[in-house]
Write a structure and sequence with these properties.
Blueprint: H1 8-39, H2 46-66, H3 72-76, E1 79-83, H4 91-106, H5 110-113, H6 124-129, E2 131-135
Antiparallel strand pairs: 1-2
């Protein structure tokens, strides 16, 4: 089993592809229910909408990370998420990675820039969760 870290450019390209998939997930899992609810004259508060987005994305990412270690973009770019030793992620570890990724991305991408200075070229949220992105063999 390979434990080689893919290059930063490859991981960033995967992130770009991931934004397209996340947009689709949000369109189906967020926008469609909102349209249906508004059709019945129901409104949800802004805080509940954000909670819905947060929970929806958590289910998407954590489920894929725990079931094969790959989202569709990760499969396409031939990489997967693993424990620091290459084994499968534990559930709390996947949840911690998801929670740590929010500030990592939202604070001007500081968690991504971290990979430029990290000795193993890992993102900050991977360092926090004890996970790593590794290349898969074809």
């Amino acid at each position: 089993m390979s434990t080689q870290t893919p290059g930063l450019g490859r991981r960033l390209a995967c992130l770009l592809y991931e934004t397209l998939v996340v947009f689709s997930v949000l369109l189906i899992g967020f926008l469609m229910p909102q349209i249906v609810l508004s059709g019945f004259g129901m409104a949800i508060t802004a805080k509940m909408l954000w909670l819905h987005v947060f929970a929806l994305l958590m289910v998407y990412f954590v489920w894929f990370w725990l079931n094969g270690g790959q989202t569709l973009p990760m499969k396409t770019w031939k990489m997967r998420l693993a424990n620091a030793d290459g084994s499968r992620l534990r559930p709390l570890q996947a949840l911690l990675r998801y929670l740590a990724a929010w500030p990592s991305y939202c604070l001007f991408g500081i968690g991504i820039l971290w990979a430029l200075f990290d000795k193993d070229k890992q993102f900050l949220h991977d360092r926090i969760a004890g996970s790593r992105i590794i290349a898969t063999t074809p």
